[in-house]
Specification:
mainly beta, four-stranded antiparallel β-sheet, 14 strands, globular
Length: 231
């Protein structure tokens, strides 16, 4: 009976030790070298002139040496352990009549990466348009121009969305949509001010408007293990 009890205790201790080692596992998150790939903006015809097309700079996001995503643009540090960057998508642009695949790269949504847990989380920014919206980050706030589509007409919107609260701190129509004439970019890149917290938005051809953002400090929850996407 004593031997059985001892064996049980040894097994329990080994189990606890394994759990502790798993919980303390350190993940290695890194952005790899930049490569250049052909890119054509989503609203430009495939028959457009070469100067309307361009090259997209992309780089791999790896977790423990495994490529999890391809990204583009700069990264923004939210805290000392988490950052955001923009995902890039490899899309098959082939028509049903095409005999082979036609793969193109396009900038996609933003993702949040936890350097400790290795978790990659998709950020669903409201009214974000991957082909039009340029995001300016401050703390865990994303400021950008979005597109609101409605049956009786939409609008170009000023958006400020906070990761920690998962809600909009600002959502306001600032210009009509769709536009009478094609204008790109549709908005200037938003400009942040620290004290008081304020963001300035300006639609193309319109006046700049500033909004005070009333919120709390960063409420981003950083815990948990695993590298699965949170969709």
């Amino acid at each position: 009976m004593r031997n059985a009890c001892r064996l049980w205790m040894v097994g329990a201790l080994l189990g606890l030790s394994s759990m502790a080692n798993a919980a303390s596992k350190v993940h290695v998150v890194a952005l790899g070298p930049v490569r250049r790939v052909p890119y054509v903006a989503a609203d430009v015809s495939r028959d457009a002139k070469e100067d309307e097309a361009g090259m997209l700079r992309i780089r791999p996001l790896t977790v423990d040496g495994v490529v999890r995503e391809w990204t583009t643009g700069d990264q923004h540090n939210i805290t000392d352990r988490s950052f955001v960057t923009r995902r890039v998508i490899h899309v098959n642009d082939a028509l049903p009549s095409d005999k082979a695949g036609r793969w193109v790269w396009q900038p996609g949504p933003w993702i949040l990466i936890d350097r400790v847990s290795g978790r990659v989380t998709a950020l669903h920014l409201p009214e974000f348009d991957a082909s039009l919206s340029e995001v300016a980050w401050y703390r865990d706030y994303a400021a950008y121009c979005g597109i609101h589509v409605a049956a009786k007409g939409g609008g170009l919107t000023a958006q400020v969305w906070q990761i920690g609260t998962r809600r909009a701190a600002l959502n306001k129509v600032i210009a009509p949509w769709p536009q009478a004439e094609r204008v790109r970019p549709v908005c200037a890149v938003p400009v942040w001010q620290r004290e008081p917290m304020r963001v300035t938005m300006q639609p193309a051809g319109g006046d700049a408007v500033s909004y005070e953002v009333v919120g709390t400090s960063t409420q981003l929850v950083e815990d948990g293990e695993g590298g699965d996407d949170d969709n």
